[in-house]
Specification:
With 108 residues, the protein is of the alpha+beta class. It contains three helices and four strands.
């Protein structure tokens, strides 16, 4: 689905390392009212998400070099629409310039 911001969005480019770290934090945190699942699960989930977005086959064991290459090929960004987000919120953008695809997370 495509969901647009209610106001013009602001976007800041972040490094692939920062993007993967944010993705791992999201996966580990359990959300604003959830139970924290832990960093190990967050890292594993972030690797799987990055591998999926990069088109890697999840039936094979994930290789650190292959996942690292995918993460570095993707473009990462942090965004907001200027609204008050509260204590727990995420505005993450991931783009795959090779395939012309992009994903935006807006979690509050």
């Amino acid at each position: 689905a495509i969901v647009g911001p209610r106001a013009p969005a602001r976007l800041a480019s972040i490094s692939s390392a920062e993007g993967l770290a944010h993705l791992a934090w999201i996966a580990a945190s359990g959300g604003p009212e959830g139970r924290r699942r832990g960093a190990a699960i967050g890292r594993a989930d972030a690797w799987h998400i990055a591998a999926l977005l990069g088109g890697l086959d999840l039936d094979d064991a994930l290789d650190a070099d292959a996942v690292g290459a995918v993460v570095n090929e993707l473009q990462w960004g942090w965004w907001d629409d200027g609204s008050l987000r509260g204590d727990w919120s995420v505005g993450l953008v991931i783009a795959d310039p090779l395939d012309g695809l992009a994903w935006s997370l807006d979690i509050r």
